[in-house]
Amino acid sequence: MSAVKPTPSDGYDVKRANPADVEAIFQPLRIGRLRIKNRLIRSSISGRIDNYDGSGSRARVNFEERFARGGVGAIISSHAPVASSARVLPNYAMIDCDERIPFWRTVGERVRHHGCAFILQLSHSGRQQDIAGVENWNTLPLGASARINDLHGLAAREMSAPDIHEVVELFARAAERAASAEMDGIELHSANGYLFTQFLSSAINNRRDRYGGILENRARFLLEVIQAIQDSVGREFPLIVKLTGRDLHRAFGILPTGDGNTLGDAIQIAQWCEQAGVHALHVSMGNAFPHPYNPAGPLPVDVVLRTYASMIHSGRHTLRNFLLFQNGLTRRALQWLWKSGTPFYDAQGRPNPQKIEGFACSDAREIRKHVKIPVLVTGGFQTAHGIAEALRSNACDAVTIARGLLANPNLPSALKDGWDGPLDPPCSYCNRCLGHVLENPLGCYDESRFTNRGGRAAMLREVFAYFDDYHEA
After folding, report:
1. Which of 95, 142, 200, 262 is the most buried if burial means most Cβ atoms within 10 Å?
2. Would the pTM of this model clear 0.70, i.e. be above it?
3. Are the CB atoms for 340 and 329 separated by under 8 Å?
4. Burial degree of 347 (CB within 10 A; 0-12, 13-18, 19+)
5. CATH number listed for the domain at residues 12-467
């Protein structure tokens, strides 16, 4: 990466970083036995770029390697379902059988070639199954309870005790495969509305058995999975738990259920995870995906409308929502509702980068006060001063980045070269990438960023670059 300053024709001004900020970012970090070369971690992102049957694709390898080449210290994979019945969407590589091991080993090798660690995120959708896949059409997904999702009306069958034990075993077997594939670590996706969140959250879990009620019971499933993984791969295998800080369940507006878990609940769960031998925590916000606080920024209704038809049969409210998106008046109301009560916008309703970058730090900082293991935090990071402020303020030990790296995979190289931000236009937080994820490959779909670089054609070339042949580093 050249350290030549972009020309004014690029339409923005990137400044030199404070050398102290750069020094803080490019310090190594240990997560258990794993050493990461800097404090920049690519968080879980991907699009529908794998094969429908859950096998991995060439595009996935290229996708992950691009971020490794850009200089991040570690990559957390997109959600890797532990079973086909547990997937959020088709066309995501799974870790549900031994046949998947060679593919993930290849991904890890390609990423490590650039000095980057690769961490496999094990997941289970629970009720949050946006598009079930043909094999799941006639069955409800398993969930912590039968309570439906408020936004889409996604439903589930409440798991019985045998169901819970079976899913615990699925995670243990998936961890064994991850170890066999020589992954550098595992992350459990227990945030953003997926199965672990459905057990943990008081706004979702209304069970009356030993897995519901008080917080200790609601955390039982997660802690049983942690124990089963350690029994399978040992307590030294690096294990990260991604946690929701505050649920903020009512951020959608007036809902029949309450706010959900408090920050105090999150702190207690974090302490239990540390006591159980987890090596790091990864803090997010909100108990669903998407959520007004995750990813922070507007709801791109024009894009969502084009892709939302794929979800019409997925939930009890999806047809209703589709019709609401189509009507101009209700569309504007939905956009207002999405933004209301959140602090991320200027007076004209546009995303304010200063308010978005590091927005989850307050929750992470409080959690970090009560544990001794490293804390990672997500939150719209893409500047050296914003990242360094998060590190110096004791909010975290490293930051995780999704949209900022999707827009600029070479962001870490630019920061290391002493710039305060990316050398190409920064992420605008428009969330058009989110709007495309149900049907299309994940990429930056903000055409305004490509105005001086070839326009829409250049944007599409970048999105489809992952499908090119393997390239030799």
Report:
1. 95
2. yes
3. no
4. exposed
5. 3.20.20.70
